[in-house]
């Protein structure tokens, strides 16, 4: 596997509701296979279902075992901020990593509800200036009636607004961007499933979920790997176009309310799906050849 100059590398924490659907595991593997990313650890995120954080933690461990890699994983908040006031080991880990004196910048890559990060900020506000957050979530600057309840923001609206309104470096990847990372299940079977134990797990996990009752909302034989932009933008911030705009306020129905006086954040308007998918698949093939 190729490498890159050390000065170009960055520290990353991946915060993930890994067991929620089937796209998080692809993003997790992409992070682990990318030489630019020094993965300091994984934070298990809830998805507003009983024991969902524990399920996410178990899926993270399953992926690491399938790849024969040893990277720390931490239990996160058990539910939304309103339901879990105890500071989790994941929130403590985010604080500890952010407060380290390290010349390599820290990026926190969020692929679900943003509860763990919100709890870390509430607990130690000093971390605000010491990290960049990339979050897959919200409907961004699409104002008005929502096309659907945005899952990640909707699983903890309080946490979403806390992070959106604080003065930290935030790159937002909204629904109209992350839903464009489309791949056919046939391509996953042909190109990803043959790639060792981890490729087989990614394919089988997705197919099992696609055939479950919980996947009634999907198209049937394709998938949107909507969490992957969090990884790809950390690797290559230029793989999409963005605007600098005022952070929206998220309403209970996950609609975005325009707030011109809010602080400015980076909001991606599109990303290069070809680059994202091909970069992941090529790295997986190299890892398992």
TrEMBL record:
Stretches assigned to the Inosine/uridine-preferring nucleoside hydrolase domain: 12-239
PANTHER family, A to Z: INOSINE-URIDINE PREFERRING NUCLEOSIDE HYDROLASE, URIDINE NUCLEOSIDASE
Keyword Cytoplasm applies:
no
The protein's matches in InterPro entries, at most eight in alphabetical order, are given as: Inosine/uridine_hydrolase_dom, IUNH, Ribo_hydro-like
GO cellular component term of the entry, any: cytosol
Q: Is Hydrolase set as a keyword in this record?
A: yes
What name does this protein carry?
Answer: Inosine-uridine nucleoside N-ribohydrolase
Q: Which SUPFAM superfamilies match?
A: Nucleoside hydrolase
Q: Name one GO biological process term.
A: purine nucleoside catabolic process
Q: Which UniProt keywords apply?
A: Glycosidase, Hydrolase
Superkingdom of this protein's organism = Bacteria
């Amino acid at each position: 596997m190729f490498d890159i100059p050390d000065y170009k590398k960055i520290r990353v924490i991946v915060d993930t509701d890994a067991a929620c659907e089937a796209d998080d595991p692809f993003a997790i593997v992409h992070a682990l296979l990318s030489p630019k990313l020094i993965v300091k650890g994984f934070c298990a995120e809830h998805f507003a279902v009983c024991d969902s954080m524990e399920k996410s933690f178990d899926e993270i461990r399953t992926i690491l075992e399938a790849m024969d890699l040893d990277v720390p994983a931490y239990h996160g908040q058990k539910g939304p901020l309103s339901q879990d006031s105890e500071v989790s080991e994941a929130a403590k880990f985010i604080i500890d990593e952010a407060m380290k004196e390290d010349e390599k910048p820290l990026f926190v890559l969020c692929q679900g509800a943003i509860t763990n990060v919100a709890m870390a900020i509430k607990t130690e506000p000093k971390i605000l200036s010491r990290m960049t957050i990339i979050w897959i979530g919200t409907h961004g600057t699409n104002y008005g009636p929502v096309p659907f309840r945005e899952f990640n923001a909707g699983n903890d609206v309080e946490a979403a607004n806390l992070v959106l309104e604080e003065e930290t470096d935030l790159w937002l990847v909204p629904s109209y961007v992350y839903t464009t990372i489309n791949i056919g299940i046939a391509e996953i079977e042909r190109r990803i499933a043959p790639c060792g134990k981890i490729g087989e797990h990614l394919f089988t996990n997705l197919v099992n979920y696609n055939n479950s009752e919980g996947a009634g909302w999907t198209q049937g034989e394709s998938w949107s790997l909507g969490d992957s932009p969090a990884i790809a933008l950390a690797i290559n911030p230029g793989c999409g176009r963005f605007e600098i705009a005022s952070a929206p306020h998220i309403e209970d129905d996950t609609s975005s309310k325009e707030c011109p006086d809010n602080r400015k954040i980076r909001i991606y308007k599109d990303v290069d799906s070809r680059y994202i998918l091909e970069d992941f698949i090529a790295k997986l093939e190299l890892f398992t050849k």
